[in-house]
């Protein structure tokens, strides 16, 4: 019987180091220090949410229906997982196009910088 991979110590809650792998077929054993992906450190419920989110192709309305939860709950779970993976959940502040033009007119930024700022805004 296989158990789910433990990533944190059950005694002190610190991250465990994976040091041994074994082949089920030939019993070859490899010992070293191995890294696991960030996703491996997520809990069972978080992984289930990611699976549903991907299956729904990121459509939050469909995730709401499938899991029977509200929009704010979906967003909250997404933010929780994003944070658990080590990323910021803070949105970049939106840059006003008029402000960019004003800054350009006042000589506060160059034309190249203005173009880059406008491109960044379009990508978001």
UniProtKB/TrEMBL annotation:
Pfam families with a match to the protein in the record: DUF2089, Zn_ribbon_DUF2089
Xref: InterPro entries: DUF2089, DUF2089_Zn_ribbon
Native organism taxonomy: Bacteria, Bacillati, Bacillota, Bacilli, Bacillales
Limits of the DUF2089 domain: 9-40, 42-87
Name used for this protein in its record: DUF2089 domain-containing protein
